[in-house]
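Case study 2.
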Amino acid sequence: MKDTLRQTANLVTVLIALTVNILASALPLNGQNTGEISDRFQVYFVPAGYVFAIWFFIYVGWIAFAIYQFRASQKESPRLRRLGYLFAASNLVNAAWLFTWHYNVFGLSVLVMLSLLGLLIASYLRLDVNRVKVTRAERWSVDIPFSIYLGWITVATVANVTDWLYLVNWNGFGIPAPTWAVIMIGVASVVGLAMTITRQDAAYLFVLVWSFIGIAVKQTPAPNVVTSAWIGAVLMFVLAVYSLTRRQTP
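Prediction:
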């Protein structure tokens, strides 16, 4: 009964999150498009608009996981039992973030985004992604979806915090905004390196590649940011290929 309740909660919350995400753009919520709101903030840690197409793959991952967990072989899976209701909670928090963003409650949006990041980190650790031997179906329905989602929310959290700091006119300790963007790219690259060393998580790294290239394309007026983003993208790509090679080695 407990397993069925958990599985149902995952499915229902996926449907809720998908519905809110679709309506956010289709209505749009509060008469504002998600991207249009983002464009108000003159910050440098923001990728080009096409980069946000990654949400399509995140949505597919949600659906794949929701379906996979209902397989008879997965109902009593110790791994999915360890995950518990973290995924369901993250779906509700995802939907909540859209309301805070579209209704211009940006300070609260940062707290909600940090909560989402925390839930995804906890989910990733409980699933022990890339450290547990899994079938191909489980890799594509569990490990890769959670890696991509966590990778994107890592980037989105930095962007969200940066937007809020811009809104409150934070002076960055006197450090120019483009320099802060370069620092953040460096920090994200260090996280990518850590994921390579500890997990060989190519999916996570490819999200960073995608994001950094998008930043380079978007921020052409800031040469230092563009150069740093391209360097970060190349480095993350090399680490992703290395991770794939390592995982294929017996």
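The CA atoms of residues 10 and 88 lie 5 Å apart.
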